[in-house]
Design a protein that fits this description.
The chain is α/β, with parallel strands linked by helices. The chain is built from 20 helices and ten strands. The strands form two sheets. The chain has an eight-stranded mixed sheet, sandwiched between helices. It has a two-stranded antiparallel sheet with strand order 7-9. Helix 15 links the parallel strand 3 and strand 4. The C terminus is likely disordered.
């Protein structure tokens, strides 16, 4: 058994950073001094020679570089404090890394090679391993936070006027500008940019100064420009301002030639983003056909090509006629959008049923384990089921509702199994949820800003998480910069304690009149995969790796029934999946008994909640309900279903 220390082993030395910064500060000072001396010397020449024409322009142009050099020098000096703090933190983390490696060595010394362990020794070994992993994880988190603080300090200290030199030499800088733009775009695409957000901001400035012809020439010189997407965390307001200051011709050129950049730029209207993403998806399908036909090898993987096909199919079906919902649909169907599309590696996308720019009720469906772009059909079916239920239950026109099927993160395989049956246990770990939650956070922040810029900014927003999508959603909802009206967690594999040990810790979710967060949760009695995943975390409340069942007594969510108990119309849920299917597998969900199957109590309740009508859904006193139902050994894999609790006593709030 080994411990993953790759991230903490990569932490640099603080003393090395301090030395490098001192050399950099000295070099910046030298540049400023050289420019000032050069201008002074040239000024001395003017006392003896009457320069005119272009020479006079040259002398005038030197003013701005000197000013910029002064600003850079001042900024570098101001950043010295941030650098010093970061360097001190690095040195402390390096010391803690040494202690962690000693703990790892101690663990191996005690437990390696021991096969016949007593039960209590197995527990002790597991607890000791958890403590070591917790130490490693703590160093990782502290390093990330320190690095983020340092990067924010740098970004707050941007120097105005970086394009001033180019502007003083009109007509003579287009080649340099294009080369710099290509270099920045390449670094963002390859992942080699040391400061992605800063480099992207510079790339935006350069593209904003290019003519449509120059943008086309840049695309011709860099065929992979459509694959360049913005880094996480760009400012939606700044993005919107940049886009609106472009000419129509510039916007059209960027949409055509840099669709990955435009389509994933938070803060823009979703109509503009979708137009770019649809073009990019069609381009990726064209590349797929050419590669499969042997015309040209674009280096696309099987996962990419399968993902492109499924995303396209989902987008087309989302826009199809759904006239099976009586009196709620126009003949042409609800329409669809692609809110985001990342074609790189394993593709990611957010496909929208409806129009996010106008819909008053906006729901984001976050899928769970085994979800990928290539299997987005299942994600689509769950999301579509809730979407259609909202129209069956609601009274407004089709344009009132939009549903986002968000496949924007890397989900883990099914519990304990990967495609090679190799024993993957990521579903009981939090790393993929943490990373996915960061992505979702920025998507929701972008949506909130886009809503704020619309003529009617008052929207009802719901985040709906299933299975591993619930910890992913919780990490995003822990940030107060996110603004949603309610969240629904169903079939949850547990909410990470570091994201929020209680529902009220999710700062991004609105409160009811009693100050309780509008977090609704439900797990079916027959949903043993969800319970197994929570049990498998094996860590107590408060541990960074631990999770809490959102239907448990201490979590504080509003628990609703999915057991078909008659309080609301509908059948019971008899498994873990959103849509039931025919299978003899022990983890199968019978046809018609999934969480999002039409005619279930679960779907009816979720439709009401997503419409902002959660007060119409009966909820439980959690402690008693949880106490009676959450007994791990009563799950179907261990005990016949007829011996399980089926309808525990229910007490309304």
């Amino acid at each position: 058994m080994t411990f993953d220390t790759a991230k903490i082993d990569a932490i640099p030395s603080g003393s090395v950073l301090s030395t490098a910064w001192a050399a950099f500060t000295s070099a910046v000072g030298d540049v400023k001094s050289d420019l000032v001396r050069g201008k002074d010397h040239f000024s001395g020449l003017r006392a003896h020679v009457n320069f005119g024409g272009h020479w006079q322009e040259f002398f005038s142009a030197m003013d701005e570089p000197v000013n910029i050099a002064g600003k850079v020098s001042d900024t570098v000096s101001e950043l010295g404090t941030a650098v010093g703090t970061f360097a001190e933190t690095l040195d402390e983390l390096v010391q803690r890394r040494g202690v962690a490696h000693e703990a790892i060595a101690g663990w191996h010394s005690r437990w390696d090679g021991r096969e016949d362990l007593w039960f209590w020794e197995v527990i002790s070994r597991s607890d000791a391993k958890t403590m070591v992993e917790r130490r490693i994880f703590g160093i990782e988190i502290d390093y990330k936070h320190a690095e983020d603080r340092f990067i924010r300090a740098i970004e707050r200290s941007q120097v105005d006027g970086v394009d001033a030199v180019a502007l003083h030499y009109p007509g003579g800088n287009s080649g340099t500008r294009a080369e710099r733009a290509r270099s920045l775009a390449q670094g963002l695409h390859d992942g080699t940019s040391p400061t992605p957000r800063q480099d992207f901001k510079e790339l935006q400035q350069l593209l904003g100064g290019m003519s449509p012809r120059e943008i086309e020439e840049l695309a011709a010189q860099m065929p992979r420009l459509p694959l360049v997407i913005p880094p996480l965390g760009t400012d939606p307001a700044a993005n919107r301002s940049w886009w609106e200051h472009l000419s129509e011709a510039q916007r059209e050129a960027l949409t055509q030639k840099a669709p990955g950049l435009v389509g994933n730029l938070e803060g823009l209207t979703y109509a503009d983003r979708s137009a770019a993403n649809v073009l990019n998806l069609e381009l990726m399908l064209k590349w797929t056909r050419e590669q499969q036909a042997g015309i040209r090898d674009y280096g696309l993987t099987e996962a990419q090509m399968a993902g492109f096909a499924t995303i396209h199919r989902t987008y087309m079906v989302y826009g199809a006629d759904l006239s099976d919902v009586p009196d709620a649909w126009a003949q042409s169907g609800p329409g669809s959008q692609i809110a985001s599309f990342d074609p790189n590696h394993e593709p990611k996308a957010a496909v929208v049923m409806g129009d996010l720019d106008v819909a008053q009720h906006q729901s984001w469906y976050i899928p769970g384990m085994s979800s990928t772009a290539a299997t987005m059909d299942g994600l689509f079916s769950d999301a579509q089921g809730i979407f259609k239920e909202m129209h069956r239950t609601g009274t407004g026109p089709i344009s009132d509702v939009a549903m986002v099927a968000w496949m924007g993160y890397d989900a883990p395989p099914f519990i304990f199994f990967d495609e090679n049956q190799g024993g993957d246990t990521q579903v009981i770990r939090n790393e993929l949820a943490r990373n996915g939650g960061e992505r979702l956070r920025y998507a929701l922040e972008g949506a909130a800003y886009a809503n704020s810029q619309s003529p009617d900014p008052d929207r009802n927003v719901t985040v709906i998480g299933h299975s591993y999508g619930t910890p992913t959603a919780a990490y995003a909802l822990a940030h107060e910069s996110v603004e949603v009206d309610q969240a629904i967690f169903f079939g949850s594999v547990g909410i990470p304690d570091e994201a929020g040990a209680t529902a009220n810790d999710l700062a991004g979710v609105a409160r009811d009149a009693n100050g309780q967060a509008n977090v609704y949760s439900a797990t079916a009695n027959a949903d043993w995969p969800a319970r197994t995943a929570i049990f498998g975390t094996g860590t107590p409340v408060g541990d960074p790796g631990g999770r809490t069942d959102p239907t448990s007594g201490g979590y504080g969510s509003k628990v609703f029934s999915v057991e078909g108990n008659g309080e609301l119309p509908g059948r019971s849920v008899e498994g873990h999946y959103g849509i039931g299917f025919e299978s003899n597998a022990p983890w199968a969900t019978p046809v018609g008994h999934g969480y999002a199957d039409e005619g279930t109590q679960s779907l009816h309740s979720m439709g009401l909640i997503a419409l902002g009508r959660g007060d119409e859904v009966p909820t439980y006193q959690e402690a008693e309900y949880h106490q009676q139902r959450y007994e791990f050994w009563r799950v179907p894999i261990f005990m016949p279903k007829e011996n399980q609790y089926t309808n525990p006593p229910i007490m309304e709030d």
